[in-house]
Amino acid sequence: MSGLVRTEPLRGEAPLLLPGDPYSVVVLLQGYAEPEGIGDAVRADGSVTLVLPRAWVRTPSSREPPPWGGEGKTALEEAARGPILVDTGGPWAREALLGALAAQGLAPGDVTLVVGTHGHSDHIGNLGLFPAAALLVSHDFCLPGGLYLPLGLGEEQPLKLGPGLEVWATPGHGGQRDVSVVVPGTALGTVVVVGDVFESDGDEDSWQALSEDPVAQERSRKKILGTADVVVPGHGAPFRLVREASQPESLGNRQLDSVVGEKEPTVHP
Ligand SMILES: [Fe+2]
Fold it and tell me: How many domains is the chain built from?
């Protein structure tokens, strides 16, 4: 892409709510990763994000298994007509997750689709709360009861969930099968919920060490930076991407992938 992208942390009261049409986004639980102070131990949990279709209305029938007609992609689109949870946090966040859902007026049984960005314990530790939801974990899709259906997801083949709503294959962090969820049309534009493709804003000095495939992850990160207006990372506050047509004079010709934390924005070429 041309031009530069700089990032700005989104501050405000939790949970972060980005109203939109056809989908709103609520970051129910903000992920974190903090040194424990003992060796290299880190205390961490993953972000949990709700994608809520504007058209969704709770009805008794919404709790029924979606019709699917034998096609995985049809079943996925049907499942995406209701509340969608992207990642669930670790099992230690169970009560926090239930409370955050309740604060949005939702019970676990209202969630019709859970997307697990990758198969790490801090991202899919509460799948057991959602036995009535369809599950898309990495590239594996199943309906309630464990009926697995092929989808054909690939880097050049995103999955359509609804109007503009897509799942992208974004390999790298956990291996070849990580996914991200792209949500258009919010008050701040397109939101991409990325799991650990981005650990946090300004993670340029740390993500490679946590990556199974840094080459693939770099590719995934650039793809996301080319589309997102807001990124929900796995272990930090959501951040906004601001695109600039030309290079600011104050940045000169230095390499713009530097990490500058909260005092300055992070800038990506
Ligand atoms: Fe994580």
Answer: 1
What's the predicted TM-score (pTM) here? 0.89
CA–CA separation, 22 and 163 (whole Å): 7
Cα–Cα distance, 132 to 135 (Å, whole number):
9
Beta strands in 10-164 (DSSP E): 16-18, 23-29, 32-35, 42-45, 48-53, 84-86, 113-116, 134-137, 140-143, 147-148, 159-162
**Ion ligand 1 contact residues with beta carbon within 5 A:** 46, 122, 196, 234
Select from 226, 182, 239, 223 the least CA-distant residue to 20.
182
What is the tens place of the pLDDT at every residue in 111-161? 999 999 999 999 999 999 999 999 999 999 999 999 999 999 999 999 999
Cα of 4 from ligand 1 centre, angstroms: 27
Show the domain range for 255: 4-268
Per the document, the length of the chain is 269
What's the CATH code of the domain at 229?
A: 3.60.15.10
Residue bearing tokens 């259906």: 149
